Description:
Radius of gyration of chain A: 17 Å
Strand content of chain A: under 5%
Largest interface: A-B, 13 and 9 residues
Helix content of chain B: 40-55%
Strand content of chain B: 5-15%
Number of domains of chain A: 1
Distance between the termini of chain B: 69 Å
Shape of chain B: elongated
Structural class of chain B: alpha+beta
Radius of gyration of chain B: 42 Å
Largest sheet of chain B: 6 strands, antiparallel
Largest sheet of chain A: none
Order of helices and strands of chain A: HHH
Distance between the termini of chain A: 56 Å
Oligomer: heterodimer
Number of strands of chain B: 20
CATH architecture of chain A: Orthogonal Bundle
Helix content of chain A: over 70%
Amino acid sequence: MELGLGHFIGLASLLFGIGAVGFLVRRNLLIQLMSIELMLNAVNLTLIAINRWMPGNHAGQVFAFFNIAIAAAGAAVGLAIVISVFRLKKSVQSDSVDLLKH
Amino acid sequence: MDLAFGWDFGRALIWIVLLPLFGALVNGISGRWASRSLVRAIAVGSVAGSFLLALACFVKLVMLSGHGEGAEGTNKIVNVVYDWFSVRVGDAVIPVRVALLMDHLSGVMTLVVTGIGLLIHLYASSYMEDDPSYARFFTYLNLFTASMLILVLASNMPLMFVGWEGVGLCSYLLIGFWWENPTYAAAGKKAFIVNRIGDFGVLIGMLLLVGTTMSFEFSDINANATSLLIPLRLDQTHSIAWLTTATAACLFLFLGCSGKSAQLPLYVWLPDAMAGPTPVSALIHAATMVTAGIYLVARLSNVFLQSPTAMAVIAIVGASTALFAASIALVQNQMKKILAYSTVSQLGFMFAGVGVGAFGGGFFHVFTHAFFKACLFLGAGSVMHAVHAHGDADLRELGGMKKFMPVTRWTFLLSCFAIAGFPLTSGFFSKDDILLGAAYMGTGPWAAYPSWVGWVVFAMLAIAAFMTAFYMFRLYILAFEGEFRGGPKHGDGHDAHGDDAHAHAHADPHESPWAMTLPLVVLAFGAVTVGFLGLPHWLGLPNVWEHWLEPSLAALPVTEGAHVSLAIGGTAMGVGTLAGLGGIGLAYLWYIKENGTTPARIAASVPRLHALLMDKWRVDEFYGAALLRPMAWLARFAANFDKLLVDGLIAKATSSLTLLGGWVVTRAQTGVVYTYSAFMVVGLAGVAWWYLVPHTGLEYAVRGTQVKLQAAAGLGYEYRFDVNSDGEFETEWSTERTIEGSYEPKDFVGGAIVVATMRPGTREREQLLEGGHVLAFAAADLGPEWQAVAPPAANAPPGTPGTSDDTLPGMSWSLPVRDIFLPYAPRGGEAHSATLEQAHGLLERIVGGESAIDIARARATNDEQRTKVGLVANEDGVDGHVKLADGTEVTFEAGAHTALVETSRGVHVVALDPGELALRPNGARVRVRGADVTQETHLRPGEIAQVGNALVRAAAVVRGTVEVRNAFGYTVRESVDVVVRPDRPADEPAPNAVRGAQ
């Protein structure tokens, strides 16, 4: 069986779905952060796969690198927030945090 | 204008007004930082300049009227400053200019205002020396002078009203000058509010005059006064038969006058107005402002002559006021209060004078009264200054002032003689003029005027004159004769504004400084001498006053042969003299000889009457109970209504609704992350739906016989079209989203009509039925106005109109023509108005008085071309001509009906088809039933018929449909109705000029 673009897209969709559902149903902030990373990586996979079939000037690959860099920065910020939340609430459950309301 | 002194007097008048106004501005803005002497120089200097200028203009006026008496333009100086605004009444445009007029009447009044104003400014500059608000006082006083001069010099009613309101404002400001004292502030407020009632009357009266005479100018109103002798109109159709416009206008104006000039029943503010500084009482509330009412009556004398009823009312109200106020003054103990009631009483004399037709006499009393009453007030102020009394001086604490202040005493005494009417003083002559006028009216020289009024007024005035002499000399004797009774005891609340009084409260009274005594001397001199201007004419003596005012005042319409006989003149003068001397004598007897024992005994014997008089007949209390309390109740009710219903219920209800909405939305703001992520998912679902379901977005364009349809573009969309209304798609599925197609007559699903005028040079109007857009309709949609006829029977032979396949069903009608020709109309210069007038006249004959022109104009204003219609029709048997602005003459034939239409391109004469022109009273519909119209006309699409002066084209409606399908297989469908024009070739995209019927 030849691996086609469809397979890559399908895998990426699956990863994205797992990430999205994980983000929605889990209450642990660390797990939610990981879900976000998963979704980002699904997008990266899409970009790289499409770049392979439509190389052009390899904008897809370049874009994926940017994504990785930004995801790293995002993860750093997210972890810092998780740590502050833990210090404040002694918990990393996202539904224990509703400070945005005020 | 002739330049006697080398300058244009026509332009000098405005400076008489502007000088005090500038004084007020300068002192008002910078006076607070300026020194007192600078403030004084500006205030007194500006009025002095104004006086000199007024004097120069007056001299010029005297010189002008010296030669060529009665000739045009010789008895007035006019100064048109600028055009102010204009008022549209019906067809007429009435301009209102800022124009000043100095004629014989306003000239005298201007001199009084500036001259006596100057003296009082001078007096006040010393009297108010120690007041902390020196500059503010002179700002108000200068502003008052300017306003009063506007009132006097205005040549039209709106400008006069500006001055009228201006003096009212200044009066309010100056009465409440010492506003720290709540009583004084309340007095100012009272004056202002009572005057509002009167000002309302002035406005109504003014509008009544203008509505009938069609001019704001005093001269025009006086000249057209007889046009006021029509029943008072309430609206277009109703009028009051027993009340002429003249009477109504005069009575409303008199309501205003009785407010401003303190007559019954609105006099109550004037006694309270004495709360203001004494120079204010002298200038505003004795010499000038309060005489504005008499001035207005004299100004409009010819109008008042049109209504003997109103004049009789004025005379009786005036005489009653004179008597009523004099009775109160008899027993009062406050100097200024007595003078205030005396002023009310003397104003009553003046109104009685003008009310019996003695305009010159009444106004003469204004003139003389200005001198002696100003002198009396200033004298009272001088006394108060001497004993450091503030607010008012109580007679029981005075006495013997003559040895402390000889100048004040002598001037006061002379003025007392003048007001009492002692022979040969000014008051003697002016009061005699009024009494003579009343007695003369009693002999019935003017048939329309009830002669009994004359005698009643005469008797009342004679008694009032007696009282006047008595209470004035009572005042004089109690204040100046006898022994000094120690002056006011201080610290009793009179000194609310806290000025100089305390420093030397126990020093002996002293004469006032020269700046105060000089005006007293000048005024006293005038009080004694100015009477000689008006020597009694019936004794053969020259009456300079009456002669001078002759051009400005209307003459009584006396019957043939009526004149003032020696007997009448002698009676009036004898009674007047007796009343004056008797009053003086009685005061002398009771207060000098008997030292006040008799009055005290009388007061003790009728305690209730005395108390009533002391309480001023308790009118204020009556007003309080009858008017103020209900008003206060109403105000409280309204306040509670507002608080409970508006604020409590309505405001609360709406605010709680908003709160509820806010509450609902804030429920979504949990602050918890997964709530927000859930909303994100919902949003994403919406976007997904948009892409899954296709959208048509059908648009169309018509170009001649071609119809172009275009659907919205979309990812993976496919389209198929139906352009011929048959419900079946002509094209297969394709990605082409545009189709252009032609139609067949059998494709029609309905009809449409396009109307255009037939006149060469006018543009075809693509529509206009029902609101200016193309109206598509099916047979069933024809409203009653279109009078649809039933579609032809199905079994009619082929070829019969309306039966073949390609004929629109139900295309027959009778057409309302109004939408065809009314959007056009005449415009232009003078010839235009003549045209409209004639048109109006002609139309009236046809439609029986209904104003079709107005109907046409009202409709024409909706036209975007900003043209107007002039509709001219011609009745059977009348030939008419109308001359147009460009000189061409249009002839109307008997029996033809013609619309005269002028657009921006020129004039068109549009002949309506011979037939019936029916203008209905409601004016909404003009319908021509010509041969072409009532005939049942059946048109095929593209055919043209002439209806009236319009072309009617039949168009058709086809239905275009598109179906769109996207990659997921979803399908949607949309249809649109398109009006097509078979008559218009494809290469002619826009509507254009009509090329005539085909």
